[in-house]
Design a protein that fits this description.
Layout lengths: L1 H17 L3 H23 L8 H15 L3 E2 L6 E2 L6 H11 L4 H18 L1 H10 L6 H11 L2 H7 L4 H24 L7 H21 L3 H14 L3 H24 L3 H13 L6 H17 L7 H6 L2 H16 L2 H16 L13 H10 L4
Antiparallel strand pairs: 1-2
Helix pairs in contact: 2-7, 3-4, 4-5, 5-9, 6-7, 6-9, 7-18, 9-10, 10-12, 11-12, 11-17, 16-17, 16-18
């Protein structure tokens, strides 16, 4: 059933491209060109070797393979890991066990990250259609912006957690929306068997995502909030169970792995999220976070240019309000994901931590004329 659905969607996308006018073809070709050029540029210039984080994760993987301990062996003496976000370490371990060396693992991960990012075209297309974005210029623009996001490749093509998390999150959002739409079509008597199968896949994604970024808790939490807002209580109960699965996964890792920096500083910063909203943090998002996230720009100094970026959070609120009125889970879910991510940056002020909402912001903007 799933391959048939994917085949049908691929046919839809193919038909969409075949029906394009010259301007739309030019737009999508520009996106593809930037995508391929970014891949060859970052590979040929060995950008993936810049920074120490990639080697930090390699050392942890080597520690697991050689000593059966999860420690940073680049330090003398060895040191506990800095964070429970070590999904990329497990990828290194898997590649190491099949005989791939350190440099080969880095190159393999970079290529996998790029292919994963390209695979996001399929779920992003489906999410856009679920949100009511009709075929034509807006949809083509969304796909082209996603393909041509140079600043996204900068971190997605490093051997870090970012690439896996950002791409898998797009897939996760699609699976959750598809699950909710399928459940709506089922009678209560036929609810449980298909729901269990689909929810197991979603729970698996939750367990995997939290290994790469703790932001996974914001995404599944957004799903719960969205289901409650549109009064889908059966779905919200199953998603709450998914939140418990995520919490259990995190607690299990945290109890098995010594993470001193999380205890000393990370948790305090997490707690501060609940009272961190103030004029300064809001201004920081407008002149630094949003420009970097949306267009790859550094901090703005022009007050008027900064003011222009208020259109993005205002658009989110408007789009979400319409979704609540229409009881459209897809729209509300996308908006809550974006708003919780921006809230997260009030305590962790780096756009890199919320790269995963980049395509959803453009989806909202390009959908406004269709509301």
């Amino acid at each position: 059933m799933i391959p048939n659905r994917m085949k049908k969607t691929v046919q839809e996308i193919s038909t969409l491209f075949l029906s394009l006018n010259k301007i739309s073809i030019a737009i999508i070709l520009i996106g593809l060109f930037v995508s391929f050029y970014s891949f060859f540029f970052f590979m040929s210039n060995k950008i993936f070797l810049i920074g120490s984080d990639a080697f930090y994760y390699i050392s942890i993987a080597d520690s697991i393979v050689k000593y059966s301990e999860m420690r940073d062996i680049t330090a003398i003496p060895s040191w506990p890991v800095k964070t429970p976000q070590n999904g990329i370490v497990f990828i290194h371990v898997i590649l190491s066990l099949i005989g791939i060396g350190a440099k080969g693992r880095i190159l393999s991960i970079v290529v996998i990250n790029y292919l994963l990012y390209l695979s996001g075209i399929y779920p992003l297309y489906k999410i856009a259609r679920f949100c009511g974005l009709k075929k034509g210029f807006p949809l083509i623009s969304l796909l082209s912006v996603y393909l041509g996001a140079w600043h996204m490749y900068r971190f997605n093509m490093l051997a870090l957690n970012d690439g896996f998390f950002n791409s898998l999150t797009v897939w996760f959002v699609y699976l959750v929306i598809k699950f909710v739409r399928d459940i709506d079509l089922l009678e209560s008597s036929a609810f449980y068997k298909p729901a269990i199968k689909k929810m197991l896949i979603i729970y698996l994604f939750v367990i995997v995502l939290v290994q790469f970024r703790l932001n996974a808790s914001l995404v599944i939490g957004s799903a719960v909030i969205s289901a409650l807002l549109v009064k889908k209580y059966r779905v919200s109960a199953l998603l709450i169970l998914g939140s418990l699965v995520l919490l259990f996964s995190f607690i299990l890792i945290y109890t098995l792995i010594e993470v001193p920096s999380l205890e000393s500083s990370g948790l305090r910063r997490l707690y501060s999220m609940f009272w961190s909203s103030n004029v300064y943090t809001i201004k920081l998002q407008l002149w630094k976070i949003l420009p970097h996230l949306i267009a790859g720009l550094s901090g703005l100094t022009n007050p008027f240019a900064t003011l222009l970026f208020t259109i993005f959070p205002l658009s989110m609120i408007y789009f979400g309000a319409k979704g609540i009125i229409e009881k459209n889970f897809s729209k509300v879910f996308i908006v809550i994901i974006c708003l919780t991510a921006l809230w997260f940056t009030m305590s962790f002020p780096r756009a890199r931590y919320i790269w995963y909402i980049f395509p959803f912001i453009y989806l909202i903007i390009l959908s406004l004329k269709r509301i």
